[in-house]
Amino acid sequence: MSVRKLKPITPGQRFRVVNGFDAITTDKPEKSLLAPKKKSGGRNSQGKMTMRYLGGGHKKRYRIIDFKRNKANVPAEVMSIEYDPNRTAFIALLNYEDGEKRYMVAPNGLQVGQTVVSGEVVPTEIGNAMPLANIPLGTIISCVELRPGQGAVMARSAGTFAQLMAKEGKYATIKLPSGETRMILSACMATIGVVSNSDHQLMVSGKAGRSRWLGRRPRTRPVVMNPVDHPMGGGEGRSSGGHPRSRKGIPAKGYRTRSKTKASNKYIVERRKK
């Protein structure tokens, strides 16, 4: 993992920091695991804009990722580590012994030629997946399920990880990337290791045009809007805008919106830090 700081030969490159892509081994994706990805430009079926600041961007094809890791006890060889335009992490192409190919979210340190396996009882090695019940305490994990068989939903973005803190009865306690500690059923699957591309947080775009390539249109600040458009709009000259709040009037900056009667509250051992 490395980053490159470009020489300032243009104004847009003066502060640009790009990924070194040392871990990437090929630029050709597996054709059988590609799917079309349609853009909506933030419009609904009537053609009306329902999401602001979306649109444009480079054309992408979706890579079908195996988040469930449900091919039990069949070893797979890592064929390549690839870039995925749909996520911040890198992905790894697996070739199973029976000939099937699948993509997985690549953990840090996974090498081409390495063998990974998922199942009930497998070695605690990087890239292997198993239920939380069989993972040793203190292990760094990623791509964690919230419900058995659902597929990974937590700790999937670049450089993130969770830690298995305790096991009691049918529940395991894990510390999530947000700092929250919560209980999850021990039957849920998780992958050993930290998600790849941990240098992603060091990237600097360098120019506004790069956001346009990613499909993000310019965002209007609420303070410069009119009162009809936003609670923070209006006023003479450069007014501060009053209390920070959303377009719907919900306070920002620390206001808690989680329901006090939410069913899953009982599984949260410790809330994330403000």
Written overview of the protein:
The protein is mostly beta strands and 274 residues long. It has one domain: OB fold (Dihydrolipoamide Acetyltransferase, E2P). The protein is 2% helix and 24% strand. It has 1 helix and 17 strands. It has a 7-stranded antiparallel sheet with strand order 9-16-10-13-14-15-17, with no helix packed on it. A 4-stranded antiparallel sheet has the order 7-6-5-8, with no helix packed on it. A two-stranded antiparallel ribbon has the order 1-2. Strand 5 (76-82) and strand 6 (91-96) form a beta hairpin. The model has no long low-confidence stretch (mean pLDDT 95).
Topology:
Blueprint: E1 3-5, E2 17-19, E3 34-36, E4 61-63, E5 76-82, E6 91-96, E7 101-105, E8 115-116, E9 129-131, E10 140-142, E11 144-145, E12 152-154, E13 162-168, E14 171-175, E15 181-185, E16 189-192, H1 208-213, E17 268-270
Antiparallel strand pairs: 1-2, 3-4, 5-6, 5-8, 6-7, 9-16, 10-13, 10-16, 11-12, 13-14, 14-15, 15-17
Identify the notable features of this structure and list them briefly.
274 residues, mainly beta, OB fold (Dihydrolipoamide Acetyltransferase, E2P), seven-stranded antiparallel sheet, four-stranded antiparallel sheet, 1 helix, 17 strands
Quick overview:
Helices cover 2% and strands 24% of the residues.
Sheet-strand content, in percent, reads 15-25%
Largest sheet report: 7 strands, antiparallel
Tally the helices: 1
For the biggest β-sheet, the strand order reads 9-16-10-13-14-15-17
Outline the low-pLDDT stretches.
Answer: none
The termini sit apart by 30 Å
Quaternary form: single chain
Helix content: under 10%
Average pLDDT, all residues: 95
Helix-strand makeup class: mainly beta
Instruction: Provide the CATH topology.
Output: OB fold (Dihydrolipoamide Acetyltransferase, E2P)
Sequence of secondary-structure elements: EEEEEEEEEEEEEEEEHE
CATH homologous superfamily identity: Nucleic acid-binding proteins
CATH class: Mainly Beta
Radius of gyration: 22 Å
